[in-house]
From TrEMBL:
GO terms for biological process: proteolysis. This is Alpha/beta fold hydrolase. It comes from Georgenia subflava. InterPro entries: AB_hydrolase_1 (IPR000073), AB_hydrolase_fold (IPR029058), Peptidase_S33 (IPR002410), Serine_prot/Carboxylest_S33 (IPR051601). One of its GO terms (molecular function) is aminopeptidase activity. PANTHER family: 2-SUCCINYL-6-HYDROXY-2,4-CYCLOHEXADIENE-1-CARBOXYLATE SYNTHASE, PROLYL AMINOPEPTIDASE. Residues 48-189 form the AB hydrolase-1 domain. It comes from the Bacteria. Belongs to the peptidase S33 family. Keywords: Hydrolase.
Amino acid sequence: MQTQSHRIDGHDVLEHVLDVPLDHAAPGGERIEVFAREIVRDGGTDRPRLLYLQGGPGGRADRPAQVSGWVDRALEDFRVVLLDQRGTGRSTPADALTVPARGDAVAQAGYLAHFRADAIVADAEALRAALGSAPWTLLGQSFGGFVITHYLGAAPHGVRAALVTGGLPGLTASADDVYRRTYAQTARRNELYLARYPGDGARLREVAAHLAGTEELLPTGERLSARRLRQIGIRLGADLGFDALHYVLENPFVTVGGTRRLTRAFLADVGTLLSHATNPLYAVLHEAIYAQGAPTRWAAHRLREEWDGFAEDADPTDAARPYYLTGEHVYPWQLREDPSLAPLADAADLLADKADFPPLYDPAALAANEVPVAAAVYVDDMFVPYDLSVATAAAIRGARPWITNDYAHDGIRTDGEHILDRLLALAAR
């Protein structure tokens, strides 16, 4: 392992790069790099380590510009390790440039199949061994909690305690099970949003109708379609998301030479919400994180027609029918319209048809769990179904859930210091 260091605001920052097998079941084969940034507060060298596993899939670890929020609280008791999960950040990238270079769609899909939670846990254990670290405390947000749930079954000897925020998965839930629930919750969030900002519904319909007859291009060069526009609804699941969406929609039009067009600022804001240039694995692997012995077959796409408000061909001018924004749902056409995803679209189709992804969770091992586990379960979570999380908390021996409606899915971002403090206290009981 290679390590470099620098200083920031009373802290040592250690940057670790480690070679690991692409396939941990074949350690003699191809190898990739994983990167982790470790923050150590002055006087905290002897503290145990906390490994943070971020949400996603496909998001790189936090890059704190200053030590604040949950990181500041964690550094009171721990050295904090921020892992760029394989394929992200400074770990060997898996994106629209590097993956197609491996060959045809079959080769690409075979490569990407090694980027799920099981491989991330094996990487983490390899990093822990290279650091010479005792079992560490895990903190996982969203998909990071899915990784922790696998960790508890596969390598509990490496875990001192496990803390989860908005990320307890259904142990046996299929992609269909998850998306039926998330569509229902997304519909509810749409209604709450429109109750707060009643004028935004009409403005959304107006923009969607405009897009049906006028070519408008995002900064990436792709045409903005009404169905792509509706994907800005992913912000509905955030604590401050309603307000953020309102500001995007508050003034979308400008008249130029007698012609009504969308403003450049509006298109730029929408493009930022829609692009996966920095996290392509989020779209490519999003359904694969639920695959356990059966293909997902683009579950979100198949199921959307079960709700009138999410129908792909919904007419925005028909005021008698609801017209909803979609949420954390990935669609096959999306991968062909987003330039940062298009080179991976055929491989993503193969992953959606893959029937032999192994199970990710071990119910028997979790039922015998001896690791202290504390989990924040958000009643109004739009992305991780509440009922599945509660059932999983009951299935993990000794897990202590904190059930709250004080936060949406991203509470760790808005009140991380308090949430971490509460979870540490729960796990210590």
